[in-house]
Structure formats: C-alpha cells, structure tokens
Amino acid sequence: MNPGEGLDERESVLDILSAPLQGVALVEASAGTGKTYTITGLLLRLVGEGRVEIDQLLVVTYTVAATAELRDRIRQALLDAVAAFETGETSDLLLQGMLERYQDQREAVLLRYAAAVANFDAVAIYTIHGFCQRALVDYAFEGGLPFALDMLLDDGDLLDEIVRDFWRQRLYDAPSTLVDLARSRRQTPATLARWVRAYVEKPFIDVLAPAQVDLEGSERAFFDAYRRTRSSWLQSAAEVTELLLENDGFNGRKYRRDWLKSWLAQLADYLSVEHARVAGCDKLDRFGQQSLAAGMKQGKAPPEHVFFELCEELSAARAQLSERLEQRWQVLLSDLLNYCNRQLEERKGTRQQQSFSDLLLRLSVALGGPDGDHLAGALRGRYQAALIDEFQDTDPIQYHIFQRIYQRSGLPVYLVGDPKQAIYSFRGADVFTYLDGRSDAEHRFTLTHNWRSTPPMIAAVNALFSAHGNPFCFERIPFTPASAAPRQHEPLRLDGCSDPAPFKFWLLDGRDDAREHSKADAIGLAAQATASEIARLLNHGQQGRVTLAGRGIAGGDIAVLVRSHGQALRIRAALAGRGIASVEQAQESVFDSVEAADLERVMAALVEPGSERLVRAALVTPLFGLDAAAL
Asked: How many CB atoms lie within 10 A of CB 578?
C-alpha cells in the first residue's frame, strides 16, 4: 500500500496553499507528520490573505506547555514571513509557495504580517480550559457565571473528602459480607476515590446500575452451610485428610498429592474461624462430591464422606451470595458516582469555588441554554477563525462547545489530531466523539509525510499495520501509510553501515525445564536484556563503531518506553548495575521518591538536633555515605 492509499472519497492529502478557508475541516495526522507546522501554515494563510486579523484568531491545544510552544512557533513563523516578503527570498517551502502566489500583492501581505507581529500579544492561544474561562469572563451575563469565584486548581482533596463521607455513611453499617468483600478487594476510601475520579463530572456518561438485591436470604443460607461444614471439619479433619491423601485413584492431571496438601492447608485455614468469610479458599469447590467424582481415573470410585457433600452445599451457597454481593457492589459504585457528582457541585457552590471541569460544563450548558444563540454569536464575532490542536483528546462536552459555536457558520475551523490516540482514552478522550466530529466535518484531510523517522523505519511501521485489515478495531479509523519526507536523514550506523532492520522484535528464550516464564521473571529478563543492549551500543559508540550523525552514539540518544513505574525502576536498576546513569521521566511526584524520604529525615533532625533518634535516622540515609563502622 502506498502513502495516500486507504483514503475514502471525502479525504485527501492536505496542501496548505490550496486548502479551503471556510467551513469545518478535519486534518488527521500521525506523530511526526507536521501537525504544528500545519497549524502555523494555516495561520499564515489566514493572516496573509486578510481573512482575519491576528486578534480574531483562536488557537486551542491541550496543555499549558503546548500553548507556550505554539506561541513561540507561531511568532517565529510570522517573523519568518515578514523576512521572506521583505527580501523575496526564503528557504521555507511553504513561504516560497506563498511568495509565488502573492507576488502581485507582496506589499499588502507584508503589511498584514508586520501588523500581526506588532499585535502578537493579542493572539488568543489557549488551553481548552483557558478558552472556556476567557469566554465565561468576557461574557459573564450570557454564561451565567457567578462573580467572585475562587479557582480550585485541584479538586482532588475535595473529592477525597466526599468519598470518605460516603464510606462512613454506607460502609460502616453495611452487611458484614459486603464489608468482607470490600476488605478482600483491598478497597478503601482512597481506592474508591481513584476509581470515581475517572468518571465524575462527566454528564455524558450513562450509568446503568443493576437493580438493588436483597442479601438476607443468601446470607442466611451461606452462614448455615458454613456452620455445618465447619462443624463436620472440626470433627473429621483427620479422617477427611486420610481419605484424600491415601487415595490412589485420582487423575493426576486434576488431583495431585502435593496439590491436595496445599488445598487442605488452605481449607483448614478457611474453616478455622467461627465467622464465615465469603472470600478465601478458592479451591473449596474441589472438595465437593461431584468434583471429586469427576477427578477420578476411569473405573475408580471417589472417596465418600458427609463432609464432601457439605462442601458441595457450601460452595453453591457461597457462589450465589458472591453473585448477589457483586450486584450490590455495583449498586454501591453507582451510588458513589451520583453522590460525588451532587456533592461536588453543592460543596463548591457553598465555598464559592470552581474547578477546571466546571469551566467546561458551565460554557457547554450556557451555549445550550436559552441565551445560547446569542453567546455563540458573540464568540463567533470575537473569534472568526479557529485552529484546534490535539482534537483526538476531545470529549462530548468539549466538542459540543466548538460545534455549538462554529457548526454551519462558514467560518474557517481546522480540527487537527491523530485518531489512533483517541482509541486509548488518553487525557479523557472519547473515541466516539472524535468519530462524530469526523463525520460532521465538511472537509477531511490527512498528512502523510513523516518528517521525524528514517525511511526504513517508516516502511517497517507501514508493513506492520498494513498487514491487518482493521488494525485499530474501528473500521472508521483506518491505517493510512506514511511516506518519508524529502529531507536528509542521518541513520544509525553500525560499523559504517546503516541498520537494515531498524524495527526489531525480541523473543525471550525458553526455560531449561520447558515451563513458561512467570510475568515477574519475564519483566526482569526483558530489563536485563535491554540494559545489556544499551551497554553494548554505548561501548561501541565510544569506539566509533556505532554512530549517529557522524559521532559516536551517547546515552542521550537512547530512550526506553515502559508501561509502569515499576518497570522503569527495573530498567534503572539494570542500567545502574552496568554503571550506566539514567534519568526517568514520569508523572509520579518527586515527594514520593526515596530521596525525598531521606531528605525529610535529615530535615527532621535539623529541626530537633537534640533528638538522638532523629539524628540516627538521618545519618543512616545514603545522603551521608556512612558505613556501619563509621556509624
């Protein structure tokens, strides 16, 4: 498949110079294909052709860091445009095309660019939350925004407070079996707060909670079955154990003697307490009479005892209660979500606070309210063109805002994003909202030139994803092959030759005993193999055998991507064991690190130097480098 193939009839490869500057257009672009360059190029056309003044433009992206980068890139692009139209010369391909196109209007275009540079501080480059806040402040009456609200930068503490209140109200007096279920799943107010944070303040989510169920009957049956089974065990444990361990009729693939010993120990622990527990002894069903009969060799009779019949009854009663407890737990989670949504709104209102989520909700509600048409018209008059970056991160609320303002307005609106990233709900994205936006767009384009990777790497990725007819599970998100941009690449060279296979898969060697690796072992082996390969590359780089852009490869040229913080620690430890320093980039707080804990001990000792306990705790930290003898 060649670059550009796989596009439907409404799609085409974007040409900035000929792209339409009216209506809503979607630009789908993979990483490295020049999304930011495209945004700056479209802005240059809008300003250069006099479609809008610089202060009538709206540029929206996701993070504060991205807005700063966009601001710098746009300012530099305008300065480059001024220089190009002053001198008539430029090395930039887009500006060359614009010089040719506007040759007869060169002076007028230059004046527009110079005015844009002079008035650059007026350009509206916002995060989505920043735009909503600006809109609500500028049009406070239309938006119904209360005055004198404090901005709550992080409502995590408030949410934690609400979840703790819910926990006290609903779990303290809950049935003991439900409390046991929460305990077995290691549920706490903190874990529930982490769970609910992903769904709270998202009115577009439909919560389908199961019907409330009565536990009393199932609990009574379970407690009775447990009492009788425990009584039988206490009376006949030795006899039952002998019947099982001395029976040679078991099928070894279902019941082995060492397995039975482990299961019996688990059973004895489970039945050792008077209080019946739903969780525990996951092999209880293996002691039921039917399971024992199914686990025998052909023609062999299973052991028989009233205890095995009681285990059968207990296992069935526990399964029924477990099913009802799961339903009750789902009801509890649904109630938690509804409670948090209500309480967040009430408590923030009482405290005269608002969060970033409130900004989105309030603007969306205002645009859909009785004064919504007037507000949308006012925003269209203020922002007569919009460039929306990272559109794959949108959700129904965000999309409703821009749809309400610009749909069918005829004003130029470009939505730029990578649909493949929307699949994974990164930063709260909703893939179905993205697909709605894709269908609603009046024009659809794609970017196919990859400016970041080498041609062999691009070819390898194309081959991998083109091999599957529907690689992203959604037929409306096809794979569009990329092509290498027309630029000089400096490939990695091994002993003077470029790597013939830049995209490699490693497979772990099998174990000597032919058994599969455990997950933990596999992660450890992968970390060690990765560290060894990095050590090899760096050593050969120092020898001049592995080069990049004409110099030996260095540590800063290498990155390792992992799925979790724990895997990152394994990689760091493996690299440290080979004397290789590394830097980790992660979202974890520095205050959660070992170094922060050590520093806290030192600071505590400085505050109370007369406390021998605190001083000793500080001295044993690695910060002082003292060994046992010195201490």
From this structure: 14
Q: Which long-range contacts (CB under 8 A, 24 or more apart) does 86-92 make?
A: 86/110
Measure Cα distances from 355 to 129, 163, 191, 204, 425 in Å: 10, 18, 22, 18, 21
Strands 413-417 and 385-388: parallel
| Number of CB atoms found within 10 A of residue 185's CB | 11
Angle at 236 between CA 230 and CA 242, to 5 degrees: 125
0.85 surpassed by pTM:
no
206 HSE (CA, 13 A, CB side): 1
Q: At what angle do helices 106-118 and 35-48 cross, to 10 degrees?
A: 110
Both tokens of 499, joined, read 């790597």
CA angle 153/375/38 to nearest 5° reads: 70
Query: How far is 47 from 82, CA to CA, in rounded Å?
Result: 12
- Tens digits of per-residue pLDDT, 469-519? 888 888 888 888 888 888 777 788 888 888 778 899 998 887 766 577 888
Closest CA to 434 of 390, 464, 404: 390
First to last CA, the chain: 69
Nearest residue to 124 (alpha-carbon basis) of 65, 53, 44: 53
Give the pLDDT confidence of 205-227 residue by residue, as tens digits. 888 877 888 899 999 999 999 99
pLDDT tens digits for range 52-87 = 999 999 999 988 888 999 999 999 999 999 999 999
398 to 347, 423, 530: CA distances (angstroms): 24, 17, 41
Residue 287 per-residue DSSP state: G
Q: Is 378 helix (H, G, I), strand (E, B) or coil?
A: helix
Angle at CA 39, nearest 5°, toward 38 and 40?
Answer: 90
User: For residue 317, what pLDDT is reported?
Assistant: 95
> Tens digits of per-residue pLDDT, 331-385?
999 999 999 999 999 999 888 888 888 889 989 999 998 889 999 999 999 999 9
Q: Is 78 helix (H, G, I), strand (E, B) or coil?
A: helix
Distance from C-alpha of 431 to C-alpha of 436, rounded to nearest angstrom: 9
Q: Where are the alpha helices (DSSP H) in 543-593?
A: 565-576
What percent of the chain has pLDDT above 90?
59
Question: pLDDT-based confidence at 10, cuts 50/70/90?
Answer: low
Distances (CA, A) of 54 to 50, 85, 106, 390, 513: 10, 18, 18, 21, 70
The dihedral over CA atoms of 50, 56, 60, 63, expressed in degrees to the nearest 10, equals 120
Q: Are strands 492-494 and 413-417 parallel, antiparallel or unpaired?
A: unpaired
